[in-house]
Amino acid sequence: MASDSHEHQLLLTGAAGLIGVAVARAAAARGAAVHAADALGSDARWRNLAGLPIAGYWDRDEFLARIERGRGLPRFDAVIHLGACTDTTERDAGFLMRNNYAYTRTLAEWCRARGVRFLYASSAATYGDGALGHSDDPAQLPKLRPLNAYAFSKHAFDLWARGAGAFDGPNGITGLKYFNVYGPGEAHKGEMRSMVLKAYEQIRATGRVRLFQSHRPEYRDGEQVRDFLHVEDAAAMTLWFLDHPEATGILD
Asked: CA 169 → CA 42, 59, 64, 117, 175, distances in Å?
């Protein structure tokens, strides 16, 4: 996807989410026509789309129906699939498999059949407790043990893509495992908000941050550390992979 073109048609699912809106803004700034698909619901996510030059919008289910009918959509050059239920406490595994696994598989198969570049959000949660490391080698996928139903739904698609050879060849797909993304546009996420935002809110409300108890002897209470990625950097990274179709597989 050349950055100086005004002809590229990009479909972005989850466009109103934290990463989605940053990708939409960055892609539109470089001349792409950004079409959005999402399930807005009754929360405030719609505000993230306000002011963005969206070329078209479909509800998630309407978009899926148009794919299944095989008509009623423009010719897309690329699909970036970020839409998913990301609630790690969701217990309805059937819902998660329909929403996160089956929907992603439908999109991937549709894109591959048409030679459309396909990038999707996997999840860092698929690594489980981290005991097996964080390798992006697809050969390591069967060894991972997700700890919750959300992570399993994401892992199931990664496994399908590997088994189906979807990572391979000139039209291979790319999965991105975003770690701890934070920044503008996440206020609607409730308990799934980043720790950066939660800490900011605590400081505003009480003047202090509530630290976590440590359950590992090598870390004292409150001295656990992790890396965070600003959403604008996550968007720039995503578009880099969009520009480099040779970078296929799962990447973190």
From this structure: 41, 32, 26, 12, 15
Q: Which helix (H) or strand (E) holds 249?
A: strand 249-251
Q: Which position has the token pair 């329909």?
A: 98
Which strands sit side by side in the sheet containing 54-59, from one edge to the other?
Answer: 54-59, 33-38, 9-13, 78-81, 117-121, 174-176, 249-251
Question: Which of these, 182, 52, 47, 44, lies nearest to 36 by C-alpha position?
Answer: 52
Query: Distance of alpha carbon 114 from its chain centroid, rounded?
Result: 22
Q: Taking the CB of residue 148, how many other CB atoms lie within 10 A of it?
A: 16
Write out pLDDT tens, residues 47-62.
Answer: 888 888 889 999 999 9
pTM score, two decimals? 0.84
- Catalytic residue check, 150: yes
Task: Write down the catalytic residue from 103, 150, 178, 182.
Answer: 150
Asked if 198 is an active-site residue, the reply is: no
Out of 57, 189, 198, 200, pick the active-site residue. Answer: 189
